[in-house]
Design brief:
Length: about 450
């Protein structure tokens, strides 16, 4: 996501590198290039205009800093302005004073509402809530069933109309679901509504009626980030027809130009609250404007990486590992294997590396880091006996050949793994317990 924009912007910054001070002509040229980059990324024209005006004004002199060189200053300004158009502060969910808190989802068909309902429910459940999913999309064949499947996967209950009882009246289903939630002590209700392929008065009216019936704390407008400019028009139509309190961007995993993301907040005035970046339940996160901006600028996203690591690594396990690492040579290939598996659970390695600072410019190198390499490394370790994993020094020539054959690699691969493991262990011993297991593991790969 945002790859093209990132690449273009980093080109702009590279051109500034080495300049002692910025002339007016430099600023104009830079502004022009940023403008092209944004337009190419499909950012809405009024948003681009305003953005460029701010950059020019700020880069134009008042903010001359002795601490930063011109390129750094421009990056800093662009970063701050990006954070601003993305909404500034992270916007958290608003909860009802009296449960249940009701969250209603609205958006076009195919935007990813149903998928999101599951993700949101799972995320809420993980935080100790007892969400109820409500199927109010009674238009699309199979939509109710789809939500039930999603709910099951997320481990939450789904409320759907009984056949013959209120079928066809989504407003009634929505209203009844709140009573049900109250009785069954669900503290959160997520209402999935029907979408259409295009903006349509009847659909808007239905969504507005549901909103009036359930009086939600949040109405989330769900929009597919891949649709480009249209997203802005759709957002405006939903804002006028139903009204919403927050935006969810979906399909940020696609290689869309992503300009919608940069425009919707500015155009509607409502904050982007969540982002979806895949079809799996866990491909979902709270939207942080500052982190997104630094990702766009290729500055990486350490915070997200750390949070993901925390989510996928058991805390006790991490502490045990940290203790072993501080002690240096207690770290074994068995531990390494555990960590490799934990990293693989976090998703494709390319995604993780993309979040690390400085990696933005290293796309080519990144492309070579193959998940298969990690899997092959894991296979080699699995081919070893527990004693060998504990102490790889005992692996002799014939065992190396046997392990290589067993895991389908060359003997040199086994040798390399063992050598690098010792090297890394030595290094890790020196570094002591760093906070992040994933980082340690990477340095040992
Ligand atoms: P709805 O009509 O708004 O309920 O949309 P759905 O939830 O049925 O999603 C439409 C399609 O988009 C489905 O095939 C989903 O699997 C897919 N989808 C939803 N969210 C994402 C996402 O974040 N990334 C990707 N790649 N696909 C998604």
């Amino acid at each position: 996501m945002f790859d093209t924009l990132s690449d273009r912007l980093s080109g702009v910054f590279t051109n500034l590198r080495g300049k002692g001070r910025l002339s007016d002509a430099d600023i104009d040229a830079t502004a022009r290039e940023i403008r092209i980059a944004l337009l190419e990324a499909d950012v809405a024209l009024p948003v681009v205009r305003q953005f460029i005006a701010r950059i020019k004004e700020r880069a134009g002199g008042a903010e001359v800093s002795k601490a930063l060189n011109p390129a750094q200053q421009v990056i800093k300004i662009v970063n701050e302005e990006l954070v601003a158009i993305l909404g500034g502060e992270t916007r958290r969910l608003q909860y009802a004073k009296q449960p249940p808190t009701v969250i209603m989802l609205a958006g076009l068909q195919g935007a990813g509402k149903t998928t999101l309902a599951g993700k949101l429910a799972r995320w809420l459940r993980d935080q100790g809530h007892t969400p109820l999913l409500v199927a109010c999309d009674l238009q699309r064949p199979n939509a109710v069933n789809q939500l039930q499947v999603v709910g099951e996967r997320a481990g939450v209950q789904t409320y759907a109309p009984e056949p013959g009882n209120g079928v066809g009246d989504p407003v009634r289903v929505a209203r009844d679901s709140i009573d049900f939630a109250r009785r069954a002590q669900h503290d959160m209700v997520v209402v999935d509504t029907a979408g259409r392929l295009g903006i349509d008065a009847e659909m808007m009216q239905q969504a507005a009626d549901i909103r009036a019936a359930v009086d939600p704390q949040e109405v989330l407008f769900v929009v597919d980030a891949m649709v480009g400019q249209d997203a802005v028009n759709t957002a405006q139509a939903f804002q006028d027809g139903v009204g919403f309190t927050g935006v969810v961007l979906t399909k940020l995993d696609g290689d869309a130009r992503g300009g919608a993301a940069l425009s919707v907040r500015e155009v509607t005035g409502q904050p982007i609250m969540f982002a979806s970046n895949g079809e799996k339940l866990e491909d979902f996160d709270v939207f942080h404007p500052d982190r997104m901006a630094s990702r766009i600028l290729g500055m990486g996203d350490m915070l997200t990486l750390i949070e993901q690591a925390e989510r996928h690594f058991d805390q006790d396990e991490a502490e045990r590992m940290a203790a072993k690492l501080t002690a240096g040579n207690q770290f074994t290939l068995e531990d390494f294997l555990d960590q490799l598996q934990a990293i693989r659970r976090m998703g494709p390695i390319g995604n993780l590396l993309g979040m690390m600072p400085g990696m933005g410019q290293m796309k080519d190198a990144l492309a070579q880091v193959d998940d298969k390499d990690l899997d092959r490394t894991a296979a080699i370790i699995r081919g070893m006996t527990p004693a060998e994993r504990e102490n790889p020094k005992i692996i002799n020539g014939s065992r190396r050949l046997r392990i290589a054959t067993g895991s389908g690699v060359k003997v040199s691969d086994v040798n390399q793994l063992v050598d690098r493991f010792f090297e890394a262990r030595k290094m890790m011993g020196q570094l002591g317990g760093m906070g992040l297991p994933g980082m340690r593991k990477r340095s040992a790969t």
